[in-house]
Amino acid sequence: MDMMKPIKLGSNKTEITEKLTSAEMGKLWATYMGNSMAKCIISYYLQHVEDKDIKTLLENALKLSEQFLKTTTDIFNRENFPIPKGFSEEDVNLGAPRLFQDEFYVHYLKYTSKAGMSIYNIAIPLVFRKDVQDFFRYCMESTMDLMEQIKEILMNKGLINKPPLIPVPERGEFVHEDFLNGYFGHVRPLHALEIAHLYDVLENNATSKALIMAFSQVVKDQTIRKLFERGKDIIIKNNDDYIKKLHEENLPSPSSLDDLVTSSTFSPFSDKIMLFHKMDMFTIKLRTFGNALAVNGRHDIGLIYTNALIKNSAFVQDAAKIMIKNGWFEQPPLAVDREKLASD
Prior knowledge:
Layout: H1 22-45, H2 52-78, H3 102-126, H4 130-156, H5 192-218, H6 222-248, H7 271-295, H8 299-325, H9 338-343
């Protein structure tokens, strides 16, 4: 592949002496919060893993989280930015019994790596300061390397099937008026992008459902338990809709991971970190629905995603309310409150 021609234009606006922009603050803050959570979760997983390859994978993921935390902390310290509380040893009990089988850890890391890459991918075009830009490029590249290891283990150990195969087109064609049909008239088969996103959402939901099922078993607060049970029902209903669309085309869907959750009811995690984790995962679902809607053409599938967006958004809102009520919701960096200044 030919290299791009270099453009040699320097600017002092990218130097580390520049103040952090709102985008840089926000993305660094989100990176810190996510990786402080990941460090706790993965540290527990490492207490109960027998497969040596999966153990190495977990160790690599933990090392990355620790590196990301150190770099964000260093940048915050240079800027006299208060370090978020995030999550710590208080939020994990490393001595708790096994809650998941080894295979689950690989699927979990695939899901969370996707989530991490979505943060870093959006950050890269928005950040300008050299040290922050270099950091997010490193985050993206390192997480992509981890993803390659994850996929290698999944395929080598027979833990996953690739997305469905469809025929290679015989020629390039333009669509007809019935392209958008979903309920009436001739309904065309799913196209490749629609299949890809249905499969992606189902794959994510398999991990999300197993995790929320496990959290429902061990959470102490009954209000949070009810919310988790509601979240599980939302996932089941959504999955039924997605699977039906694939099966109507005689296409396979990803397998459930529910059997990878043990029967333990002893919690390895604080209610706070579990609620934050599921609120975060459901927030990521909203992003994946948006991506799926952007490439979808059929009205019936568009309506499924829209309904899922509404129900998943409601879950996130209710989770946030519980977080706020319990004093667990850390505030991201804010713009100046001009109205408050005017009233002082």
